[in-house]
Design goal:
The structure is a homodimer of 496-residue chains.
Chain A (H helix, E strand, L loop, with lengths): L22 E2 L1 H19 L3 E4 L3 E3 H4 L15 E3 L5 E4 L4 H11 L7 E10 L11 E10 L4 H18 L6 E7 H12 L5 H11 L2 H13 L2 E3 L5 E3 L5 H11 L6 H12 L3 H19 L7 E3 L13 E12 L5 E12 L5 H4 L5 E7 H10 L11 E3 L7 H13 L4 E3 L7 H10 L4 E4 L2 H6 L1 E6 H9 L4 H6 L3 E5 L3 H13 L1
Parallel strand pairs in A: 2-6, 8-11, 15-16, 15-17
Antiparallel strand pairs in A: 3-5, 4-5, 6-7, 7-14, 8-12, 9-10, 12-13, 13-14, 17-18, 18-19
Chain lengths: 496, 496
């Protein structure tokens, strides 16, 4: 055989690709816990789980990316061996449309489904913006009734409360794309093509960011953005811009007042009137079920940028203030959104299949819970059984086994056991509640030392009198036979 | 605006890409339940969760694909905008090596971690072979002690029992790559290059498939495979093949007998003797913790094809028989495997970082549990509240709300309510335990009809006397005020 050792190869770089990251320990379990809570509510509402593959054909995904304004919008795509193009899914809605079209004969109608998983965006990464992130969606496919939209808004409120957002700290805002369409029909008649509609949509979607005057400028002559660059406007007349702005500002003191304002805005447009009536029904259904306007409210300023929405659109916003990276207070903002999209399945089948659904921004919601201190506590580490005498590993394994059998999370120190300090430092790093130590003297006497590491840390941190120290010893010698009971008691004291 | 309607575009095909599939309902929850049980055991043993991104740089992934024999082995890869190559991970071990190299200063040593998630293989898909599947791994990085290997074997046994594989229905078989290496040193001396070693490894890994004579032929002159094609052999002498076969067959009546046989096989090889001694320690540790050879056994026929293993290798096999697709009984076979790989992190850092770990084939294990009837029961559908009078949707929503508030999974029928037969058919398709019906007469009388759909199906299927039918009515009229209590009672009866 020829020698295989040749020139030393370059070492690979140990790094994630740009825009990707790793999640460790409690970051993983907190998200899993939250997703379990959310899907529990979805389940309670009769939604069934669906897990589609991460990879779809590019033709099935279509061109429904939400961020058409960004230069790097897109998917991660490649060619299969048979030359066909595949891509990572960019959301959970496009795969649902494909799944429903593919399996519709075997699925109930309507089909309520939920889905959880990562999605991928081929965008320029930025601070806090990753190219892989989680979504957690619920959709109802196959029914035109706005009862389905109302149900999802109510479910969204329940989800937020279930994960720990208090009533009063969130609001689900509802609007209807038909109202905007009716208004545009009134303004432009049949000359309003898709391009103009999309332009108006994207512009009014910036209302939260650029404010009333910003939207007015962008609808009309254009404006300078923060960087000083000039952004072309849509060139609408000042009257046309006024009408659109009056729509955005049509929210009244009550849902009834808002509905009345909207009726005025849409005038004689049939589609507009339909939209207003749908909003009225949603508000009535929500209120009848106990979701008053403090939780679900009609708000015409909600637009949702996605072009594919055809009816009601909704958004869950967290209304409490957080401090941003520059120390300024600001509202937390949107954590979930969705709406009705009646044409996504039709792409495949040619038949109209009405659908509505919501997507929760899992990472943003987690960040919100952290800001409120509502995430589950830092996961407790395992009890660490140290190795005082390296010839007696079997004895220490025995202790670990007893603890585990009793339901106590426990592990043997498997590093180099040359000194105890290193082992205790490891136990601290593992967030261990208790360390177990047994040297030759203890063995001979049938004893074991157990060390309360949480208390040890507190004692070291606080100024304590000698009496307190003695009353609460961080380390104690116990009978070997009492190991499990005493460790358990120590953990309970530490968690009390 | 120009007209946008032009020639009707071709409709996209509603299909997953070749080799991918969707998972529905109980398929999703069963897997989630099983993974929760497995990671619960991992947690109990002190392992911490890690979730790395699905996408890695190609240079970080390296060339460690397990299936070097297959023509289409490989990863799904593409170029980023900056020309660098990215790919979907093909397992959870390569990402762990990258993560440990990248974050080693912040991680405890040793680092016990578990990971769960899909991996992707760019292979030719086949029946039952998909290009995306789940793995669930546990690894200990940063310690050379075989206590770490023994711990993972014990944990594997605990995992199998926790998910529902009975003791006696599985065996964890352990071998050591060093024994084989020592034997090859003896046989070939320094002339045994990587190529020959890998060839022997891949050949003996086929032992389960082609049997003793098959391996002997492949080590020597070659053989015809099932399709009649001639497979070149490695060209070893018959004596050399004998020695290797004697190694594969060295398993004795007890672990002690196997150890003694292996000592003979490795002769004077130092590395071989190390390997045998490690196996002896693993067997001793396992037995001391109560894992006798009925659960963890030394078995030299376990090889594990992966070239990167450097020490102990282990495999969990299910020993009960199933009936294969041709109706023949066969053993279920391997559901998990792993071993020690001391060089994977070194690729990045240049420093030796010993590591060992196991990967569970989640989908195979699920299939095994299904074959044994040990999966959780088919998920119960929601109570379906039907719509008899479409003007009273709010009333029906009220009923759904009451049921949900009481913890009962419930939904409103949202399809076209034109006839009750259609609604009850939907409820059946949803696997609903109970349907709720309220027409005008019931409303006037303050009553509601509830229908036991499970019982109704049984009554329809069985031949029953009229008396039985009357004694167990599948439908009953109740007071509207008792809705929640009566529905609950009906579900309990149905589940009893």
């Amino acid at each position: 055989m020829a020698k295989t050792k040749q020139k030393k190869p370059q070492r690979p770089r140990a790094a994630t690709p740009r825009g990707f990251r790793d999640y460790f320990g409690a970051e993983v379990t907190r998200r899993a816990d939250m997703l379990r809570t959310i899907t529990g509510i979805y389940h309670q509402y009769g939604f069934d789980p669906l897990e589609s593959s991460a990879v779809e054909t590019v033709e099935a995904l279509g061109k429904f990316l939400p961020d058409v304004d960004r230069p790097n919008e897109g998917v991660f795509a490649w060619q299969d061996e048979d030359e066909s193009w595949m891509a990572l899914r960019y959301d959970l809605t496009a795969p649902l449309a494909r799944v429903y079209a593919q399996h519709r004969n075997d699925l109930p109608t309507p089909y309520r489904r939920y889905a959880v998983g990562p999605v991928w965006r081929n965008e320029k990464p930025g601070p806090g913006r990753f190219r892989q992130f989680y979504q957690c969606d619920a959709d109802t496919v196959g029914t035109p009734t706005v009862a389905a939209d109302a149900e999802i808004c109510a479910m969204l409120a329940d989800v937020l409360e279930a994960v720990g957002i208090a009533r009063g700290d969130y609001i689900v805002r509802v609007n209807n794309r038909k109202v905007l369409n009716g208004l545009l029909d009134n303004l432009f008649g049949s000359e309003a093509g898709e391009g103009l509609r999309d332009g108006v949509l994207r512009t009014v979607d910036k209302f939260d960011k650029v404010g009333e005057q910003g939207v007015r400028d962008l609808l009309g002559p254009g404006r300078k953005d923060a960087s000083g660059a000039f952004i072309d406007g849509l060139g609408l007349s000042s009257h046309q811009a006024d009408v659109i702005i009056s729509f955005l500002l049509a929210r009244g003191e009550s849902n009834a007042a808002t509905i009345s304002n909207l009726r005025e805005v849409v005038g004689t447009s049939g589609i507009g009137a339909d939209g207003v009536s749908e909003l009225e029904q949603i508000a009535e259904m929500a209120e009848a079920q106990g979701y008053g306007p403090d939780r679900i409210v009609i708000d015409p300023s909600v637009v949702r940028g996605l072009g594919y929405y055809t009816g009601p659109v909704y958004e869950a916003e967290l209304t409490f203030e957080i401090t941003d990276e520059k120390g300024r207070p600001r509202q937390f903002g949107s954590v979930a959104g969705g709406g009705r999209y009646d044409d996504l399945v039709k792409r495949f089948t040619g038949q109209e299949v009405p659908a509505t659904g919501v997507s929760i921004g899992v990472d943003r919601l987690l960040a919100a819970l952290e800001a409120k201190g509502r995430t589950s506590a830092e996961a407790q580490g395992p009890v660490v059984v140290t190795v005082m005498d390296r010839d007696r590993v079997a004895d220490y394994q025995q202790m670990v086994g007893e603890l585990r059998a009793a339901g106590v999370r426990a592990e043997l120190y498997l590093g180099n056991p040359k000194d105890m300090g290193r082992q205790l430092k490891y136990a601290d790093q593992r967030n261990a509640p208790v360390a177990v130590i047994q040297g030759g003297d203890e063995l001979a006497a049938g004893k074991v030392q157990i060390k309360d590491l949480a208390l040890g840390a507190r004692l070291a941190a606080d100024i304590q009198t000698n009496e307190e120290w003695k009353a609460q010893p961080a380390q104690m010698e116990i009978e070997r036979a009492d190991l499990v009971a005493q460790v358990r008691a120590m953990i309970q004291r530490a968690n009390a």
